[in-house]
Please model this.
Amino acid sequence: MFATYLIGLREGLEATLVVSILVAFLVKSQRRDRLPQVWAGVGLAVALSVLFGWLIEYTSTSLLARSEDRELFEAITSVAAVVFVTWMIFWMRKAARTIAGELRGKLTEALAVGSLAVAGMAFLAVIREGLETALIFYSAAQGAAGDSGPLLALIGGIVTAVVLGVLLYASALKINLSKFFTWTGALLILVAAGILKYGVHDFQEAGVLPGLGDLAFDITTTLDPSTWYAALLAGMFNVTPAPTVLETIAWIGYAVPVLVLFLRPARRTPASTATTAAPAAPVAAATPEPTTPASTTVTERGADTGAEAEAASAPQRA
Model:
């Protein structure tokens, strides 16, 4: 269940930060009259995300009669979920410093167009997170049919993310979002490796891939599946005591290189030779730069607690 809680927390916090940036920008711009359009777009995105999740579950349980078809459908959704997770964590690492400015620029353009543009902009900003959450949750919760635990864990993660987002907006809580997304990203890579392993197993059960009976190892006597720690490893990272050869290759082949790429140290750009070799030209007259007010309101500080401001406190990764 921790895996689904982590999914809800990570995706929920991303969506919450996006919404808080939009709301703070409207409040500071004295455009509170556009807030209902933002909430309408957010509400529509949430509703469609829930509908998408239900449609995936309905397709698997009701529309597909043969077990082979269901296994193939679950395998395809697992691979799609891994693709989305990988893209999401690398995108957030790259966009953390600029997401706030980009959202404010897009919202400024939407305000010039009209109410529908504002609602559409909020909708598009949230729907991506919602669809990803529905797909990843379905893939991560496979094998827990009839168990409401994963769903409750997902809801708990989303609720936690909303609370953190509200506290960040109000400047009542300051966390290093860069480190947060780095650690949760690394954990999600391991979760994605387990999802991919599960997808390979489904492909084998559907007859698409061979080797269903070829075990890489069997440590059932050491890692008893009935113990709590075996259930925890299986639920979080799909680590099982008797995986097939292809499952093991898929897990290691994804987790190791992706973790290395994600956690590699930042590259330092060398100083340009022009600036280091050439002496600075004398300045005839310096124009004083405009100063910024010494004090900021709580709302302004809350807006800056988005990914752009907090990510700047940690070293930038390549």
About this structure: Confidence is low (pLDDT under 50) at residues 271-318. Residues 110 and 117 are 5 Å apart (CA to CA).
